[in-house]
Amino acid sequence: MSVRGTAPELSLQAQRLPATQGYRWIIDGFYFFLRNAPLLAFLSFGCLALIIAVKRIPLAGPFLAFLLAPVLAVGVMNGCRSIARAAPFRYGILLSGFRQNVSALMTLGGLLFASTISAFLVGGIFDDGVLLELVLSGKQITLNLLRHNADMLKALELPLLLLLPMIMAVWFTPLLLAWDGCDLGRALFFSLIASWRNWRAFLVYVLVIAILIAAVLGIVLLGLNLFSEVAVHFFVRIISLPLIFIFIPTLFASFFLSYCDVFAREPGTDDAVAC
Asked: 211: part of which helix (H) or strand (E)?
């Protein structure tokens, strides 16, 4: 199981974990998923389905989706904490984030929206605004899009680099807002410091995720070159979908475990500190 903090009392002092903890979060996240696969899959894909549905609202959809994303993510994390307790299922747990510092969570979503749009505006210099259009329109990145826009992945590099400090600042922020009662400024600060103290573990974490995603995309793109698109679409449905069913809930579980490890929380408890 994950390495737990050794702080004698509960605090917001971030633990500095070894680099190997990065891949342990993925492994432990998978085993955590297996503890209650139906519930965690329901919460994970329910969260994504609601975000996608809201994103399709004309004009305001993408902005509203960003606003709701932190709130719904907290609902999934509440579900993870419930699984850690072996507690019975509670209806409405996915929406429980609306009862936990919701104004700060939605403000965080607005900040994420503004940061993302700004980063992709800069990145639009290199891809003629294709990626920004995808973010704002809610369109999906299809196999054809990847096949005929080879520069798209390269165009992602600059926006992701620009967003890196924001990603570090918001990684733990939803749970610091919902569970620890921090105000938004302190939550962003503590998340940034905690992420920086554990940059080695997060680097390994991101590399493992990137390798897993690259492996699946590589197989799909290779199939596009070797077989017909109909055959590749069939392969994606038969092989990739079960993998996604496991991968997405595992990522949510790994996020929960990373918070517990870095802030020395015992999974399944109501440990919190006043910020």
From this structure: helix 199-226
- pLDDT by position in tens, the chain (length 275): 333 433 334 457 888 999 999 999 999 999 999 999 999 999 999 999 999 999 888 888 889 999 999 999 999 999 999 999 988 888 889 999 999 899 999 999 999 999 888 887 776 666 666 666 665 665 555 555 555 455 555 666 677 778 888 899 999 999 999 999 899 999 999 999 999 999 999 999 999 998 887 776 666 666 555 555 566 566 666 666 777 889 999 999 999 999 999 998 877 666 655 55
CA-closest candidate to residue 269, choices 142, 80, 141: 80
**Chain mean position to CA 29:** 13
Q: What are phi and psi of 76, to 5 degrees?
A: -65, -40
Q: What is the DSSP letter of 94?
A: G
- N-terminal to C-terminal alpha carbon distance within the chain: 28
Supply the pTM of this predicted model. Answer: 0.82
Q: How far apart are CA 123 and CA 267, in angstroms?
A: 39
Residue 234: which residues within 8 A CB-CB, separation 6 or more? Answer: none
Rounded to 10 degrees, the C-alpha dihedral 175/176/180/185 comes to -150
């999934």: which residue's tokens? 76
